[in-house]
Amino acid sequence: MKRALVGLAAIAVFAIPLDAQSLRLAVGVAGVSFSEVSEGLQYDGAGGNAMIDFRFGKFMVQGEGYVARLVPDPETGLTEEVDFRQIDVRIAYFISPALAIQIGGSGREVKPENSTTNVGYGRIGLISENRLGSIARIWVRGAYLPSPKFSGGGSADFAFEIGLGTWIGTSNGRFGARIEYDFQRIDRQVKDVDVPQQMMVARLSFEVGF
């Protein structure tokens, strides 16, 4: 899966013309909640995130990564904290000013590895983005995540993610703040035993555009 993500990123970079319409960079903080529902595992914590967004013509290429230090819920009886890392790549084509088709991929790593399983997956879905005047915009996105691959084995017949976000900034679009929330569920099965995973990520970041 890591090779696939690198490939997507490389395609994104080389596909960008020199006269790209916009380049946006954002950095901020992230709150993460991760659980394996049937196993009663629950981790919560905070960290940082960074995002890069290229737009040219009807295309958008976006890469994002976030890291967090997660603490187990005391009720689980676990005491070991874990390091959480995720990379997301999205390539979108706007079929109308407010609606885009998106494809991409993600890789998630949790250390130590025996705390839970790492996973990589693709995505295909839609993004709806709308401007609210010159100083704000909102977006909603949803995707099906086909054929997730788990480091600990298993499979998932169904997996999805949904996300909400808003941007508020200057009228020229140069500076702004982003507030985003994503929810993801992967219905993992291991030897016919259900081990579903859920993740929620909230992010506040500050963006500069060029």
Describe the structure.
This protein has 210 residues and is mostly beta strands. It is 7% helix and 68% strand. The protein contains one helix and twelve strands. A ten-stranded antiparallel β-barrel has the order 1-2-3-4-5-6-7-9-10-12. A hairpin with a 7-residue loop joins strand 5 (99-111) and strand 6. The longest helix is centred in the first third of the chain and has 14 residues, at 2-15.
Determine the number of helices (DSSP H or I, runs of at least 4 residues). 1
Largest sheet entry: 10 strands, antiparallel, barrel
Please give the order of strands in the largest beta sheet. Answer: 1-2-3-4-5-6-7-9-10-12
Number of domains: 1
CATH topological fold name: Lipocalin
Overall helicity: under 10%
Q: How many distinct beta strands?
A: 12
CATH superfamily: OPCA outer membrane adhesin/invasin
Q: In CATH, what is the class? A: Mainly Beta
- Report the order of strands and helices: HEEEEEEEEEEEE
Distance between the termini: 31 Å
Key features?
10-stranded antiparallel barrel; Lipocalin; 210 residues; single chain
Layout: helices, strands, pairs:
Blueprint: H1 2-15, E1 22-36, E2 41-56, E3 59-72, E4 82-96, E5 99-111, E6 119-131, E7 136-144, E8 149-150, E9 155-169, E10 175-190, E11 193-194, E12 197-209
Antiparallel strand pairs: 1-2, 1-12, 2-3, 3-4, 4-5, 5-6, 6-7, 6-8, 7-9, 9-10, 10-11, 10-12
